[in-house]
## 1
Amino acid sequence: MDFSPAGSGRMLVALGVIGVLAILAWQTMEPGQYRTLTLILLGFFAFRVTLLRLRSR
């Protein structure tokens, strides 16, 4: 796995961490406004990671 700044290893680790955080937020937070906001923010971060990976190619 390539962990250089433009490598795919970093992207996979970042998306994996974001995915784990999303699962934990889903399981531990009560349904409502805060959980929705948390999931939207995590989705935004995942989108940013993906966009930066595509832009670095």
Note: Residues 8-56 form one domain.
## 2
Amino acid sequence: MDVIAQLEERAKRTNEAIMSYLEEGENQKLLLAVQHYPSAGGKRLRPVLAEVVAQAVGGAGEKAVPFGAAIELIHNFTLVHDDVMDNDSMRRGRPSVHVLFDEPTAIIAGDALFARAFEVLSEVDVPPHATRRLLKLTAHTVWLIAEGQQEDMDFERIPPTELAISDYERMIWKKTAVLFECAAEGGAIIAGGTEEQIDAMRDYARSLGAGFQIHDDILALLGDEKTTGKPVGNDIRNGKRTLIVLHALQNLAMDDPRRAILLEALGNKDATLEQIKAATQALQDCGSIDYARETARRHADQGKKHLEVLKPSAEKDFLAAVIDYAVNRKI
């Protein structure tokens, strides 16, 4: 199955919906800032997930399109703010919003995307009790994302030797996986799925999100900047406590020179390209990147087990292919 081609095809309706919600605004500078990331495209995994899950549980996929668009607007709001906090200068091959405009405008643009998302959410055509459930689900998801982002930032100030892999797993669940969960759970709710199906789709998406983030951490080290559209090495400069870094520090002896090389670059804003390359090589040599790959694939295998609640269909096959794609992609 050509997952990328199917994603692109399925994302067309979502793309049209997203941009239609961002056409109106009196302040031209703010409107351009708000449109900057959504107009750059992207994989649209989350909104496509909402639509496909709705179909997979027996509902009409088009009913989930506004919800999927709202989820994507929330995702873009978090990216705008993340880039300010992480001082990332590029996103999707374009200058970050705070670079192209300025930091105050970026913060306001993120807030505006967040507000518009809930406006769009009100257009989902479901019974009132389902609307309330979707609103609560989405709002609580954003709360958890905020907690995850705060933990990610806090971790940068905690000595990496004091953090456990379970701390990282909790953080990425909140920061990344919960929005995948929200998309899948919401799609199942909109389609009128059973509680068993709703729970299974949420759990599937949790595994998808975890595997996606772990693989993202690998791409941040080994990816091609022209392909990923993100500055390679910034995670090390920013001192990100990724699964890769935590595994390395737990397994490298105190007198291992690779440990010193890694710690010299980790959190060093002035680290040279040579220092970043040396730290990345140390992570490769000690097996931590391979460990992360294996962990991401384990999440994918676990996620596919939750699809057993679904009847055989093209949508079920697509969901299985998507989770494999998430832990093997190049971007």
Note: Residues 128-155 form the longest helix (28 residues).
## 3
Amino acid sequence: MTSEPIVESSGNVFADLGFPPDEAAILALRAELMARLREILLERGWTQTEAAEQLGIGQSRVSDLVRGKYDKFSLDMLVRLTARTGGRVELAVR
């Protein structure tokens, strides 16, 4: 039985998967915003229909959000949706 070497993460799973640095950064931001939006929906107890009304999008888009279909949301759209929840997005460049 051969064992795979253990490689320490860079802190960005997308970079670890081999995406170019610029794309990995955008994918990580999108994933983080989507996860936070899903948390907000759960915290507020919104149904998908209620979330759609509050966010100003269709219920099918809320379904895509809840199911983590990150390819269906631009970074710009996720920032807009976050703002519509009353949230604020801050960027820290390191």
Note: The mean pLDDT is 92.
